[in-house]
Amino acid sequence: MQLHRDRSKFEAAGVRLAVIGQGTPRHAKHFRDSHELEFDLYVDEGRDSYKAAGTKIATFTELLGPSMVAKGAAASARDKVVQGKTIGHPAQLGGVMIVKPGGELAYVHLADDASDNPPNSEVLEAASQARAG
Q: Which residues contact 16 (CB under 8 A, 6 or more apart)?
């Protein structure tokens, strides 16, 4: 959802957003509809794409340690988003990748903990550089 907030900036830069989540197509449809999201949303029940990308399973501290809870509460208040029911592996961390046509990775950020998301400005800059080069 963080990337979706700046969807218009990504579209203006010629970047197509796509998300891979856990769960089933039914879960994806419900998630997209309930949050009014406008991007491609794919699901990977077996988490094969997560494994291929090199993402990790969080430890307890990386998922629910005091600093994670504090960051999560602050983000929830700021963004007015409440964590819903978790689908899939609850400790699976994600990441952000920019994939160029042809499959070359132009940018990779894999989360170190539950709060580790790169700023949209960083992702947008990397996407703009990838399109230019």
A: 10, 39, 40
